[in-house]
Give the backbone structure.
Amino acid sequence: MKVAYFTESLPPNTDGVVKTLCHLINTLEDNKVDFRFYSPVKPDNSFTWNEHVYKVPAVPFFLYKDYKMGLPYFNGIFSKLDEYRPDMIHIVSPTLLGLYGLNYAHSRNIPVVTSYHTHFVSYFSYFGLSGLEKVGWNFLQWFHNRCLKTYVPSPSACQELETRGIQNVELWQRGIELDRFSPSLRNNELKSAIGVDEDCPVLLFVGRLINHKDLNDLVDAHHLLNAQGFKYKIVIVGDGPMRNELEQKLPQAHFTGYQYGQDLARWYASSDVFVFPSTTETFGNVILEAFASGIPAVGVAKGGVADIINHGRDGLIAKPNDPVDFAKQISYFLSHPDERYQYGRIARETAKTYSWKAINTRLLQSYENVIRASESVEFNPEIYN
């Protein structure tokens, strides 16, 4: 099986899509699947598979300058693809690069699938572009329905897309590396280094510091908890355009910037509660990372996060965009340290049920089914209009 991927998300970027694709690559290599990536970013030589990446021209993404948008129409990818002769095209995002891959697949009668990773349309309101949401969903419906499958990371995201008229949706969840994230990495010296003692709870956030993570809800919840006299320390791991604003609003919090590898894993294991107010997640990889590290999470009842957290067992779920309820759920863990420990123990057990190998092996089986099905019928892109 030969698969060509079109994506803007590869290392050195570090978001959830990148992590997902890196784990998929491991499974592709383990199963001796031939693959190529067409992308505006190319990993360095520390990634042994970087020779499988064909770099395309790009410009900065207008909503987030740290990301690039591929411009594939200027360097003849068609000939490269014709030489490669893929059995399948997998489009990761409905960008110009993704449209190029879609058009190529239809022109060569190659089965094409896509995956849904990010609620891009829901971001419009955070940038003052809420008037574009209807147009955005109409485009997504058109795009996804011209593919044979849309792989989606969570049941709630599946339901959302089906409600929006997107067909042939199939679950492709996310996994976790239990050997990388572990309670055994807890290191109280990290607490000492930021000026708190072992008994002071650390509330951890990990992610991009950008407005669609609803971080102002965390700020408001902090002010409510502070007014009630709770003692704790907030640690923010990550970076982004909101960092300066957050440093002003949370002057007592500790900001680490981006963390990687064991440094990141130690912050998870050395914290006490993971706090994540985002309403725009399709899955929530960071929740699994926290669970694998043995700490409970407080999330909200919107998006993929609520599909992972089992309220009252391994974490707590607050009302979305409700800082008062978010603070209430956090306060339970601050007031009940023994319960916090029990929730964290169960959270680790929850994480054990998410195996990357099993999840991605099922994806490859789905690929094979799509290819076999497409061989038995004449591919007609018009039926996906």
